[in-house]
Amino acid sequence: MAIDSAGRPVLAMGGNSPDIEHFIARGVLSAPETSITSGPTDGATVEAGSVQFTFASTAEVGESFRCSLDGAAFAACSSPLLPPPLAPGSHSFAVRALDEDAVDLTPASRTFTVATPDTGVDGFFAKAKRKQKQKGKKIRLEVKLGAGEDVRAVAKAEVKLEGSKKKRPMTSGSKDIASQEGALKLKPKKKSDERKIVKALKRDDKVKAKITVTVTDAAGNEASKKLDVKLVRG
Ligand SMILES: [Ca+2]
Questions:
Q1: Whole-angstrom distance between the N-terminal and C-terminal Cα of the chain?
Q2: CATH number assigned to the domain comprising residue 63
Q3: How far does residue 176's CA lie from ligand 1's centre (Å)?
Q4: DSSP SS3 for 122
Q5: CA–CA separation, 129 vs 183, rounded Å?
Q6: Are 213 and 134 contained in the same domain?
Q7: How many domains does the structure of the chain reveal?
Q8: Which among 34, 84, 135, 136 is most buried, taking Cβ atoms within 10 Å?
Q9: Ligand 1 centroid from CA 116, angstroms
Q10: What is the whole-number distance in angstroms between the Cα of residue 88 and the centre of ligand 1?
Q11: pTM of the predicted model, to two decimals?
Q12: Which of 94, 114, 134 is at the close of a domain?
């Protein structure tokens, strides 16, 4: 085989023969180019467990791949590649194609970040006045709450009147607490309960309520707090 001035092999017969096509395909004349076709893009932040790469190359004969995760030695791999679960933080991925004779000397690579999983509600608190004063014919309980992130909040309560074991439900309905801090107002689910509570307060009976405040963050994590209060005539 003849060698040209640049050190490349040339075919004596020249022209566009099938032999040349074969030579190129075998990587003698050019190494395959590798490309990453899907997966985390450069600089992206992704959820742990969602990382998967697919890749392709220009190799035509005997294509295979070698992958490297976080700078480890290149090892045989195939597309799609689903790496083991990655710890939160920065990661890098590189892949190079090989064909029968040559290896891609310029691997395709991506650098990305795996997000810290959201496993809880940040900085949640809820509080209520121990004595909740009631005026007129409406019964209302109020709680204050907040969180270090946006949450959806709901408060529910069970009211017990002196001398009765019956639980009379109150609820606030759901509310978005996006400004870190907010309040929820609860009212009785039933008008008949509201009337009975008003009457009990007029008699100065003991009226107690157990409130449960529940918040849910954007990732679906829940936190809740129970608060014991008394209802008094105000
Ligand atoms: Ca959270």
A1: 105
A2: 2.60.40.10
A3: 14
A4: coil
A5: 12
A6: yes
A7: 2
A8: 34
A9: 10
A10: 15
A11: 0.63
A12: 114
